[in-house]
Every structure is written in C-alpha cells, then in structure tokens.
Design goal:
By secondary structure, the chain is α/β, with parallel strands linked by helices. Helix content is about 40%, strand content about 25%. It has two domains: about 130 residues, Rossmann fold, CATH 3.40.50; about 130 residues, NAD(P)-binding Rossmann-like Domain (Rossmann fold, 3-Layer(aba) Sandwich). The strands form two sheets. Strands 2-1-3-5-6-4 form a six-stranded mixed sheet, with helices on both faces. It has a six-stranded parallel sheet with strand order 9-8-7-10-11-12. The radius of gyration is 18 Å and the shape is globular. The structure holds 2'-monophosphoadenosine-5'-diphosphate. Keywords: Amino-acid biosynthesis, Aromatic amino acid biosynthesis, NADP, Oxidoreductase. Homodimer. This is Shikimate dehydrogenase (NADP(+)). Its EC number is 1.1.1.25.
Length: about 270
Amino acid sequence: SDRYCVFGHPIGHSKSPQIHAAFAEQTGETLSYQAIEAPIDGFADAWREFAAAAGRGANVTVPFKAAAWRLAETLSARARRAGAVNTLLLDDAGKLHGDTTDGVGLVSDLAAHAAPLKGARILVLGAGGAVRGVLEPLLETGPARLVIANRTAGKARKLAADFADLGETAGGGFDEIAGPFDLVINGTSASLAGDLPPLPDALFADGGLAYDMMYGAAPTVFLRWAAERGARTVDGLGMLIEQAAESFYLWRGVRPDTAAVRERLRRSL
Ligand code: ATR
C-alpha cells in the first residue's frame, strides 16, 4: 500500500497516525501512515530515505517546516508566502512538491465553530512561524482589521507589513493592544510553558471567541483566562484534524469527514 508519514522531533505524542488511519478507514483508501523522528540536522536525508523506500508523501511538523520548504522542488503559492511546508508529495513527474495546509485548517475549524471572521476585529498573539503560516487564509476571510501582537514588537510589525497587501493589518507589542476584539487567536508557544502573555482585561467584544492553536487534555492557560472574561473558547484540536484532512485530500483526492474523527480523538486525549 502507499506509504505516508509525519516527520518531527520529538514525534512520540503525534496524533497524526491515528487521524490518518481513521481517514483511510473511513474513505476506503489503502495506505499506511507512520511517525518518523528525524535527527534535528537530518531532515533532508530522512525524507530521501523514506522516498527511496516507496514513500509517496509526508506531513512535516516542528521543527522541520522551514527545512521542508527549502527541500521542496516546487511550492504552492500559499506555502511560498507562509515560508513553511507541512505537506510534501511526489508529483506525477517524480518532483517533490511542498504545500501548507495549516492556514486552511485553522480557517476551516474556525468556520466549523461559527467564529466571527468576515467584518470581524481579529487579534493574533505571536509572530513566529506558526502565525506567519496562517495569516493569508485568515485575511482572505475578510476581517475588518487584523492586529498582530507579540512579545518582540518588531516581529509583529514586520509581519503586519508583510501581509498588508491582503487587508487592514497592524502589529505591535502586547502593551499596544487596544480592544475589543471579536476573535483572539493565540499563536504563541507560551501555552507550552504554561505562560500567559500580558493581556488587557477588556480584550473581548460581546460574544467574542478565544482560540488557542495549542490543545491538550485540559484547557490552556490562555483559554482559562479567556473563559473567566466571558469569551467562548476553542482549542486547536480541530485545526490539527482539519489540516490533516486537507493534506489527505492533496495526496488522495478524497475529502474525509472530519466531524466523526474529531469526537473520537477528543475522547482519547
Ligand atoms: P512557532 O513556529 O511555534 O511560531 P517560533 O517561531 O519560535 O515558534 O515563535 C514562537 C512565538 O511564541 C513567538 O511569537 C514568541 O515570541 P517572541 O517572538 O517574542 O520570541 C512567542 N512566545 C514564546 N514564548 C512566549 C512567552 N513565554 N510569552 C509570550 N510569547 C512567547
């Protein structure tokens, strides 16, 4: 059967093998999908080894998304702009194509939760690779305004300028945040450390939604903080499943039903 995998470091806790096995079962596609821990400095070799062993495509996660971007021989327009590749596939001519499905995954999950997007005031926290990767699809939903706030203010300002052609953007430090916002997306890695960026109390508009790109068995510190301030909260498990579905579609041309997998995975956390 056709072989796929996810490369990361570490990769032990990845949910991707479970998700893709569920998609394959559901769609009747015959494929195998494994998790591979590539050495930190050995991503390109790990891909070559996998391809030589009949690997047809791969997902790429932390810390290899930029290395995958450099390795790909062709890039989708959205991957080129994101500066990151989370999906690799060999095209019919045997060329390695790189794409990114993180941004569409986020927007699909936001839409599934009826998040305010068109005409909304959106705040994005963080200005690293994870945020860069989702800005284009977010701006394409037509927000009134998208503000990027980051611990290092200059990075947020640069990102806002880089994407200013796609909509009304602004960037700055956490101390410059002037709410309220209809949607606040946490794209910092602060949750990992159990940290909360310094945020003003009056952050959310009435009916505002807090979204954390991270997920876990318990709500993140950001989502707990947001819930205490009356916001509706959603974690990033759905984004993980939606980006996987989009990768599956790129590889197989079939769209899995994500809702069924979402419930199963939530119970397994
Ligand atoms: P990723 O690929 O996950 O985006 P990254 O490029 O290292 O990883 O970016 C991490 C992001 O989380 C950055 O925006 C970082 O802020 P800085 O640019 O100021 O470094 C942010 N971040 C990490 N730890 C944080 C913390 N404890 N508080 C606030 N922001 C944090």
